Amino acid sequence: MASGKESDESADSPSSPKNIYKDPDDGRQRFLLELEFVQCLANPTYIHYLAQNRYFEDEAFIGYLKYLQYWQQPEYIKFIMYPHSLFFLELLQNANFRHAMAHPGNKELAHRQQFYYWKNYRNNRLKHILPRPLPEPPVAPPAPAPPQQPMPPVTAPTIAMPAAPAPVLSPMQYVNPQGSSLAKTDMRNSAVDRRKRKEILVQMGLRPLQIERMMTFR
């Protein structure tokens, strides 16, 4: 009888493996509920709601926030769609942040900073990911063009016309015109002059042949 009672008491004791709680769906429902709650923390307005309703004054709730930090582990973090939720979950571990989020101004400030982060996130990331281009060498300014000299005016080509040939004088025109002051050649005077030159050449001691040549090239 004693052995039967001991067996019944051991079956009803909390430490018995038969009384361990087991989720009917292998923890799927619990996983989804905690994932939804953690991702709600990405909204500063929801954190402000929790602070206004004094959830952060409950020690059990603060312990629950510490328990939810397991979502930062690699095997769970891959299910998080809003990374800001883990950032705010970390901040909620600080009592000063929990009390500050009860003020509407702090809620608006957190929401504004979150918006600026989303707005500039891509550009800020690209600054660190993309390689920076090398600085281009300074380009020398182009040399000023020399001033263009004015082109001389184009003149029409002039063709030199040959001068008209002078009229050929007739043999009769070589005769001295009437009333000319030129003295007529006197044949007798020329003979006298020839004789005088011949005498002068003879006196100079020239030979007759030389005298004839001299007289010929007069």
Automatic annotation (TrEMBL):
Keywords: Activator, Nucleus, Transcription, Transcription regulation. The keyword Chloroplast does not apply. InterPro entries: Med31_sf, Mediator_Med31. GO terms for cellular component: mediator complex. The keyword Transferase does not apply. Pfam families: Med31. Residues 1-24, 132-155 are annotated as: Disordered. It comes from the Eukaryota. Belongs to the Mediator complex subunit 31 family. Component of the Mediator complex, a coactivator involved in the regulated transcription of nearly all RNA polymerase II-dependent genes. Mediator functions as a bridge to convey information from gene-specific regulatory proteins to the basal RNA polymerase II transcription machinery. Mediator is recruited to promoters by direct interactions with regulatory proteins and serves as a scaffold for the assembly of a functional preinitiation complex with RNA polymerase II and the general transcription factors. Transmembrane segments: none annotated. It comes from Morus notabilis. Its main location: nucleus. One of its GO terms (molecular function) is transcription coregulator activity. One of its GO terms (biological process) is regulation of DNA-templated transcription. This is Mediator of RNA polymerase II transcription subunit 31. PANTHER family: MEDIATOR OF RNA POLYMERASE II TRANSCRIPTION SUBUNIT 31 (PTHR13186). It is found in: Nucleus. Gene3D superfamilies: Mediator of RNA polymerase II, submodule Med31 (Soh1). Component of the Mediator complex.
